Structures are given as structure tokens and as C-alpha cells.
Amino acid sequence: MLARGIHVVLRSDTHEIRRLADAIEYLADSLQLPQPMIFKLNLALDELITNVIAYGYAEQKDGVIDIEMRRHDDRVVVKLIDSAAAFDPLSVTEPDTAAALEDRKIGGLGIHFVRTLIDEVDYRRDDDRNVITLTLLLPPEPVSANGAHP
């Protein structure tokens, strides 16, 4: 394996999201992450980072977002750290996905996707910074008939 983790610093510019997708691909290749996990990471991080750039740094074009991704034994942990305006994405009310489209409130669906796709999502405000931690559990390794891992 090439890496146990990576650290990427993005500017508060939506063009930077492509760099993050490249970093996720690098991490996924080097750690042999399954394709469904890569999809979940890309979708969740795209949503969260777009929100930080569009809303948290709306008036501040020189903001940065630190992203740390690490693989632990049975999980991948991703931290997003920014100095944007305080915002707890977990405080957003769950959208009523059963309601008719014309009756639904605008917003909140992206955060709903993050909550649905990611095994654990945590938010805290630390030293005037937002810290969002995403944890994805790795699927168990298949065990052969003789009890050995392939």
C-alpha cells in the first residue's frame, strides 16, 4: 500500500473540488477501497465542501478547507476543518422525502444524503473552526471455506 492517509488543503473555490476527487481516487487506489465506498466519499464530500464554499465562505474568498483522510483497521475517517461561519450540518431538519415535491421545503436534501451514505457523522466547533468527521466502515473481508482471508 502506498498510503494510510492523505491531507489536502483546498481554497474556497468550487474548482478545487476536482482536486479533492483526485485525492480520493489516489487514497482509494493505494488503500484498495471498494468502489461503493469511493462513490459515497465523493458524493458526501462534494456536498459538504460545496456548502462550506457557497454558504460558510460566501463573503470570504480567501478561505481554506483542510481535509484529512485516514484508513484505520476497519474504517476510513475523514475530517473537514474550516474557519468559515459556524454551522452544524447535523442541526438541519431532516427533509420530508415522502411529501409531494411542491410541498417540500427547499434545502437540506444534500445533508440528508450525507447522513444516509455515511456510517457516522459528527460535528463540533473547535477554536473557531468547524470540524466535521465522517466515518465509513469497511466491508468485512470475505473468509474462505478454510477460514483464511483471500
Explain the overall architecture.
With 150 residues, the chain is of the alpha+beta class. It has a single domain, classed as Heat Shock Protein 90 (2-Layer Sandwich), CATH 3.30.565. The chain has helices at residues 17-31, 35-56, 109-117; strands at 5-11, 64-72, 75-82, 120-126, 129-137. A hairpin with a 2-residue loop joins strand 4 and strand 5 (129-137). Helix 2 (35-56) runs antiparallel to helix 3 (109-117). The chain is globular and about 50 Å long.
Descriptive tags:
5 strands, 150 residues, 3 helices, 31% helix, globular, Heat Shock Protein 90, 5-stranded antiparallel β-sheet
Topology:
Elements lengths: L4 E7 L5 H15 L3 H22 L7 E9 L2 E8 L26 H9 L2 E7 L2 E9 L13
Antiparallel strand pairs: 1-2, 2-3, 3-5, 4-5
Helix pairs in contact: 1-2, 2-3
Strand-pairing-aware structural class? alpha+beta
What is the architecture at the second tier of CATH? 2-Layer Sandwich
User: Would you report the number of β strands?
Assistant: 5
Mass-distribution shape? globular
Question: pLDDT average, as an integer?
Answer: 82
CATH topology: Heat Shock Protein 90
Strand order of the largest sheet: 1-2-3-5-4
Order of helices and strands: EHHEEHEE
Quickly name the level 1 CATH class: Alpha Beta
Task: Determine the number of helices (DSSP H or I, runs of at least 4 residues).
Answer: 3
Give the tally of structural domains.
1
Largest sheet: 5 strands, antiparallel
Describe the oligomeric state of these chains in a short phrase. single chain
Helix content: 25-40%
CATH superfamily: Histidine kinase-like ATPase, C-terminal domain
Low-confidence regions: none
